[in-house]
Design brief:
about 475 residues, alpha/beta, Rossmann fold, nine-stranded mixed β-sheet, two-stranded antiparallel ribbon, about 45% helix, membrane, EC 3.3.2.9
Length: about 475
């Protein structure tokens, strides 16, 4: 036993030395794009790429032909393969439940009414770096006397701005105990929904982040708060690292420490199997982290889509853009498993906790814009040597940061409080939420909105008192 203790002490001491050597602070040189870069059809360098700053009102207005074609495809889809006996979502989307979704989509889902609902929030388009960028721009009531604070909200895959339709009204409506209210800008990521896709390679999170900084400046906001989950979280971090002078603070509902783990952290993770207090701060963190085999095998089981989209997005996109049934299964399977890993053992995959029309609204955004292929390309643009060579990828976030940690988020994120300072140098707040998973704004809008309000309240007090 004594030998084991000595060996353990030596191992920890060695890890500490390695950790200190690797803890050199990175100074980020912004990898900004020239204003003449064009990501659209006229890709390359051109003076005419971004020759207008016009912001145009936009309404979703899908032609009857598109809906007629959709209904034809749903009506004439090939018979679904029956699931295995006693299998729910363990092998992927259960075809018996998929049949119910397709029946609802074909016979009860009213696109005319849903389109009218989606048009209740003010939407616009503007051309940035040669791409028409779609965004929601929701302001507080004109009669409000509260100070207005700009908030950039960013979605991820396979989500869309549809995720924000419940939370945005909660953020732009003044509340009694706050002297400020939010003005929300929620763009569709390039290649998603009604935003144009890049015509050439290289449009990763950092490049998208620069587009959004330019968008906010065009709307009159040289400095703002930024919030995101999934890819929105990655873009939020990129903006905060590359353009810290533009960001008051950042809020993420998918904080991750995976990329910033050092040898010392891996040692603590391993030893935490026996002494959890070395690495976890609560029972919730413990249950999300241990046993480590659960995290490892859970990642293997659920990451097949990621490898496919990092390597061959265009191949998978052909099938998904051609079949609405396949598209619905591919997207909604993620809304099942990523909401709660245990939902795969339920006959409905846990999807009945959502309204089916709202789930289909999100699927429709991908279908009517033919954007599944272009959305999946973001994985390829991120997972390559060229992107990882950018200086911000190995730097810390220095702006005030906050993390909302939802208990059913994918455990591979390892958003443990004792590790968060590895990534976030100025961590103001880390909140363990009581319920919810990956699609926080969609599943738990009130809970996420409350945390955003509280976070910005804390950050504003710190900022104003430091002036």
């Amino acid at each position: 036993m004594k030998k084991f203790k000595y060996l353990l002490a030596a191992l920890i001491a060695f890890a500490l030395v390695i950790y200190q050597k690797n803890a050199i602070d990175n100074i980020v040189v912004p990898e900004t794009m020239s204003d003449n870069v064009c990501w659209g059809a006229n890709s390359g360098q051109t003076k005419d790429c971004d020759n207008t700053k016009e912001v145009r009102p936009f309404l979703i207005n899908i032609t009857t032909e598109v809906i007629v074609d959709l209904k034809y495809r749903l009506s004439n889809a090939r018979p679904l393969v029956k699931p295995l006996q006693s299998v729910n979502f363990e092998y992927g989307f259960n075809s018996d439940y998929l049949a119910k979704i397709i029946d609802h989509w074909l016979n009860r889902y009213d696109w005319t009414a849903r389109q009218a609902y989606l048009n209740t929030l003010p939407q616009f388009k503007t051309k940035i770096f040669g791409l028409d960028l779609h965004f929601i721009h929701a302001k507080p009531p004109a009669k409000s006397s509260a100070r207005t604070i700009p908030l950039l909200m960013l979605h991820g895959w396979p989500g869309s701005v549809v995720e924000f339709y419940k939370i945005i009204p909660m953020l732009i409506t003044p509340i009694a105990d706050r002297n400020f209210v939010f003005e929300v800008v929620a763009p569709s990521l390039p290649g998603y929904g009604f935003s144009d896709a890049a015509a050439r390679p290289g449009m990763g999170p950092a490049q998208m982040g620069q587009m959004f900084v330019k968008l906010m400046e065009r709307l009159g906001h040289k400095k703002f708060y930024v919030q995101g989950g999934d890819w929105g979280a990655a873009i939020t971090e990129a903006i905060s690292k590359i353009f810290p002078d533009r960001v008051y603070g950042m809020h993420s509902n998918m904080c991750s420490t995976i990329s910033s783990l050092g040898l010392y952290d891996y040692v603590r993770l391993a030893l935490g199997t026996y002494w959890p207090s070395l690495i976890v701060s609560s029972e919730s963190e413990k249950s999300r982290t241990y046993p480590l085999s659960k995290v490892f095998f859970g990642f293997l089981e659920e990451s097949g889509y990621m490898h496919l989209q990092m390597t061959k997005p265009d191949t998978a996109g052909v099938a998904l853009n051609d079949s609405p049934v396949g598209l619905a299964a591919y997207i909604l399977e993620k809304f099942s498993t990523w909401t709660h890993m245990n939902y795969k053992s339920l006959p409905d995959g846990g999807l009945s906790k959502f309204k089916m029309d709202e789930l289909l609204d999100n699927v429709m955004i991908y279908w009517v814009t033919n954007s599944m292929t272009t959305s999946m390309r973001l994985y390829s643009e991120y997972a390559n040597k060229k992107y990882y060579a950018l200086p911000h990828t190995s730097a810390k976030v220095k702006v005030p940061a906050a993390c909302a940690i939802f208990p059913n988020e994918m455990p591979i994120m390892l958003a443990l409080k004792k590790l968060l300072n590895n990534e976030f140098e100025n961590l103001v707040r880390a909140t363990e939420m009581k319920d919810g998973g990956h699609f926080a704004a969609f599943e738990q809008p009130r809970m996420l909105a409350d945390d955003i309000w509280s976070t910005v309240y804390e950050m504003e007090n710190i900022r104003i008192n430091s002036i």
